[in-house]
Design brief:
alpha+beta, Polyamine Oxidase, Chain A, domain 2, 5-stranded antiparallel β-sheet, 5 strands, about 20% strand, Amino_oxidase, FAD/NAD-bd_sf, Amine oxidase domain-containing protein, Flavin_MAO
């Protein structure tokens, strides 16, 4: 999570659902980069959770909150301006910055050479974004990995 800012908003009711919105958001234009409806299973707690732009870490929490609410009000209306609670966590905090980091950086160990091999005499392959040597940890990496394994399977002699 290093380098990420996770946020949560709570509301008294799911106003976005009543307006026909899913609560899912992906954006390259505002402070919110991605967001999801985070209503609980019992549907008695309502809200959103998601991730903010990494550059927002340099601003105080109140400024981040104001920008989040402004972006959501532009998209969902004035009701978005009235959450019952706002929380966010900047994961690049003092714990990480002081040199005592035990959390691995994102995608640091993806594409390990052992994950590129086949096992069980060519019957088992690993294909996932974590095994990709290009774009690891992203959808593009999953596609690269899948194409590589598909190519390996197609070039193998038939199993008897």
């Amino acid at each position: 999570m290093a380098g990420a800012i996770k946020f949560t908003l709570e509301y008294g009711y799911p106003f976005w659902r009543h307006e026909g919105y899913s609560g899912m958001l992906y954006s390259h234009a505002g402070i919110i980069m991605e967001m999801y409806d985070h209503t609980n299973f019992e549907e008695n707690k309502f809200g959103f959770t998601g991730f903010l732009s990494g550059g927002a870490a340099t601003y105080p929490q109140q400024v981040r909150r104001d920008w989040v609410l402004r972006q959501l009000s532009d998209l969902l209306g004035a009701q978005a301006l009235k959450p019952t609670a706002y929380f966010d966590k900047v994961w690049t905090d003092e714990f990480i910055l002081d040199g005592n980091q035990v959390i691995q950086r994102p995608h640091q160990y993806n594409g390990h050479p052992l994950l590129q091999e086949s096992y069980m005499h060519g019957k088992l392959f690993f294909a996932a974004t974590e095994t990709a040597t290009k774009f690891p940890g992203y959808m593009e990496g999953a596609v690269v990995s899948a194409l590589k394994v598909a190519g390996s399977c197609l070039s193998l002699p038939p199993h008897r």
